[in-house]
Amino acid sequence: MNSHPKSMTRVLIVESRAELGEIWQRHLERQGMKVARARGQEEAIAHLSENDVDIIILDLVIEEGAALAVSDYANYRRPQTRVIFVTNTSFFSDGSIFAHCANARAFVQSHTPPEDLAAMVEYYGAEIQA
Predict the structure, then answer these.
(1) H or E element that contains 51
(2) What is the pLDDT along the chain (130 residues), one digit of tens a residue?
(3) Within 13 A of 115's CA, how many CA atoms are on the CB side?
(4) How many folded domains does the chain comprise?
(5) What pLDDT is attached to residue 95?
(6) Rounded CA separation 47/113 (Å)
(7) Is residue 100 included in any domain, yes or no?
(8) CATH of the domain at 57
């Protein structure tokens, strides 16, 4: 169980589109969260191997590597970490992502407003700290 204050929720954004990752990062940092970004699987796994992370915002379709490999690694290496999947495709639109990824907590469209995404991060971050 983590004992860090709520304002220090640690987030990793895995998003190939830099401009979208930056928007999310700025919004989460304004909410008092500690945010790191990775553009693909290799960077994400490198970060997870060295850092505790509470929440991963993970684009289902990343340019380098596989999102499910990142989720699986996080589930193994950092089992407390929650994953919010984002996508602009119809993959897993039937909700089956939750059967494939034990650490999945939400599945939303990439165009979800940043403030809604921040609210989800805050909610699932509080779940970890409870």
Answers:
(1) none
(2) 344 444 589 999 999 999 999 999 999 999 999 999 999 999 999 999 999 999 999 999 999 999 999 999 999 998 999 999 998 876 666 666 777 788 989 888 889 999 999 999 999 988 776 6
(3) 0
(4) 1
(5) 64
(6) 26
(7) yes
(8) 3.40.50.2300
Residue 41 lies in a domain: yes
Which of left, alpha, beta for 92 (phi over 0: left; psi -120 to 50: alpha)? left
Q: Is residue 1 part of a domain?
A: no
Q: Among 57, 29, 77, 60, which residue's Cα sits nearest to residue 121?
A: 57
What domain range is 84 assigned to?
6-129
Neighbour tally for 54: CB within 10 Å: 24
The C-alpha atoms of residue 126 and residue 130 are separated, in whole angstroms, by 6
